[in-house]
Amino acid sequence: MALPETVAPASDRAARAPAEPGPWRDRLLRVLVPLAILVLVVLVWDWYVRAYAIRPFILPGPFLVAETLVKDWGTLSGALFVTIRITFTALFLALVGGTLLAILLVQSKIVELALFPYAVVLQVTPIVAIAPLILIYVPDTQAAVLLCAFIVTFFPILSNTTQGLKSVDHNLLNLFELYGASRWQTLLLLKIPAAQPYFFAGLKIGGGLALIAAVVAEFAAGSAGAGSGLAFRILESQYRLNIPRLFAGLILLSATGVVIFWMTSLASHLALRRWHESALTRET
Amino acid sequence: MSSTASADPSRRPVVRLEGVTKSFANGTLALDRLTLEVRPGEFLSLLGPSGCGKSTALRIIAGLGQPTAGRVDWPATPHDAGGAPERSIGFVFQEPTLMPWATVFNNVWLPLRLKGRSKASVRDAVMEALERVGLTAFADAYPRELSGGMKMRVSLARALVTRPKLLLMDEPFAALDEITRFKLNNDILQLQAELGWTVVFVTHSVFESVYLSSRIVVMAARPGRVFEEIEVPVPRPRDEAFRTSPDYVALCRQASDALTRAMQAAGREVA
C-alpha cells in the first residue's frame, strides 16, 4: 500500500544524524583558551602586587586570597551555604509562582489586565529601595532577604513565560480547534510546550538575578543579619579592612553565579536540544 | 449547479455553501454571496489570485470562523443532538504546521489524542498512516530533521489518520520545489483513489489544479466570488503522461484564460 519512491534522499538522511560533538581540537580549545586567560590575569596581578609592593589592605595578591579562602573556609562556607539556600529557594518559588501566574494570565484577559501592571510596578521599583520596608515588615531577616530575592527573580520568569504562552503558531491553534481540543488540552499539549524556549530564557535571567537580589537584599539588611550570608561577610570584611577575605568572598560569589548559569543553561539545553533552533548546530 | 440529487444519501453533496458572505473587522469583503456545492468523491480545486477569498472559503467549510451571512449545510452528514454536524474533516495547511517538540509519531497521533485515544490503542492506525506516506522509518524523528517535502507528508499522514471523508487543503505544496510538488501531487491522487476522499484543494497554480482536479472553480477577487467553473473530464488514474498530453495543455489554457478574465474583472471594479 505504501507509495512508491518514498525512500528519503541521502541528504535527508544526513540531516537526521544528531549533531556530532565537535572534533577534539575544538573542545580542547574551549577549555584551554579561557584557562590561559585566567592564568595570565593571575600572573599579571601577582606581578603587579609584588613589583609595586601594594599593601594587602589595598590589593592582596592572588596567592594571599587563595590562602585566606582556605584559612577562613569555616566562616565563608557557612555564609556561602546561607546565600545559596536563599538564592535557590527564591529561584524555586519564582519558578513555580511565575509559571502559574503566567498560565493564569493567558487564560483570562481580565486577570491579565488586573494583575500584570502591578507585576510591572513591582519589577521596575528598585529592590534596594523596597528592601528597608520589607525588613521592617518582615520580622525575620532571612525571610525578608528571601522575599526580596523572590520579587526580583519572579518577573523575568513571569514575563517570558507569558510571552511564550502567547507565541503559539496560529495554524497549530487552528488545528487544535479543528480537532475539538479542550482548553485544557490546548494548554497542556500546545501552549506549554511552545512556551518552553521562552521559559528557559526567563530561567537563565532569573537564575542570575536571584543571586544578585539575594546579595543586594543582604547589603540592605546590613549588620541586622547576624550569622548570615556571603554579602554580609563581604561588608564585614570591608569594615575590618580584611581585604583578602573580601576578595575570597567575592570569588565564591562569582563561582556561585557561574554554577547557576551553567545549571540553567544545561537545563535549557536538555529540554530543547531535540527540537529547538537555539540548540541546533549547523554545519555550513 | 443543480441540486437534484437528494433521495440517495450517497449522492448528496458533502457540503453546500449558500450565499456565504464574509467581511472582516477592517471592512474587507473577503467573500460575497459564495454558493458552492462539493459533490461526494470529487476533487474540487478553488483556483484564483491571492485575495479572492479561496482560503477564507476553505476555513469556513472547516468551521474555523463563521460566515457573516449565508449558510453552510452538510446534507450527507449525521447531526448530533445539538444540531451540529458531526463532520469528518482533515485539514492540510499551507505550512506543514507540525509541533516541533514532538516526534513524527506524536504529531500524527495528535488528532486521535485530542479525542482521548491512548498511544498504545492507536499505534497501528498511526503507523498505517505513516506507511501510506512512506515515512514509517521516521516515526521517531523530529520535524526539524526532515526535508520540506517530508514534513508535508507528515502533515498529510496527520490529516488522514482520522480517516476523514472530506480533506481540505490550503495551498499545501506552494512552498515546495517543483520536483517534490509533482511527486506529492501523484501521491495525493493515489491516496484519494485508495481512500475515497472528497477533496477541496485551494491553489493559485493553474497546472496543479488541472492535473489534480475533477472540477475547478475559478474565483475572482474584491470581493471574493465564483467566477467560472471548469469540468476536467479526464479519467483517473492520471500520471506523468497526462502532464504532457494535448488534453492537459488545452485544459490549462482554458483555466488560464478564465483566471486572466477573473483578474481583469477584479481589476476593472477596483479602477
Descriptive terms for the model:
heterodimer, A: 284 residues, mainly alpha, MetI-like fold, 2 domains, flat, B: 271 residues, alpha/beta, six-stranded mixed β-sheet, three-stranded antiparallel β-sheet, 8 helices, globular, disordered N terminus
Account of the 3D structure:
The complex is a heterodimer of chains A (284) and B (271). Residues 1-19 of chain A have low confidence and may be disordered. Chain A has 284 residues and is mainly alpha-helical. The two termini of chain A are 38 Å apart. Chain A contains 11 helices and no strands. Chain B has 8 helices and 9 strands. The two termini of chain B are 31 Å apart. In chain B, a hairpin with a 5-residue loop joins strand 1 (15-23) and strand 2. In chain B, the strands form 2 sheets. Chain B has a 6-stranded mixed β-sheet with strand order 5-6-7-3-8-9, with helices on both faces. Chain B has a 3-stranded antiparallel β-sheet with strand order 2-1-4, covered by helices on one side. Chain B has helices at 54-62, 104-113, 119-132, 148-160, 178-195, 206-212, 240-243, 246-270; strands at 15-23, 29-38, 43-47, 69-73, 89-92, 166-170, 198-203, 215-220, 225-231. By secondary structure, chain B is of the alpha/beta class. Chains A and B meet through helix 1, helix 8 and helix 9 of A and helix 2 and helix 5 of B.
Give the helix/strand layout:
The complex is a heterodimer of chains A (284) and B (271).
Chain A: H1 10-16, H2 24-51, H3 62-71, H4 73-107, H5 109-124, H6 127-137, H7 141-166, H8 170-178, H9 183-221, H10 230-239, H11 243-272
Helix pairs in contact in A: 3-11, 4-5, 4-7, 4-9, 4-10, 6-7, 6-9, 7-9, 9-10, 9-11, 10-11
Chain B: E1 15-23, E2 29-38, E3 43-47, H1 54-62, E4 69-73, E5 89-92, H2 104-113, H3 119-132, H4 148-160, E6 166-170, H5 178-195, E7 198-203, H6 206-212, E8 215-220, E9 225-231, H7 240-243, H8 246-270
Parallel strand pairs in B: 3-7, 3-8, 5-6, 6-7
Antiparallel strand pairs in B: 1-2, 1-4, 8-9
Helix pairs in contact in B: 2-3, 2-4, 3-4, 6-8
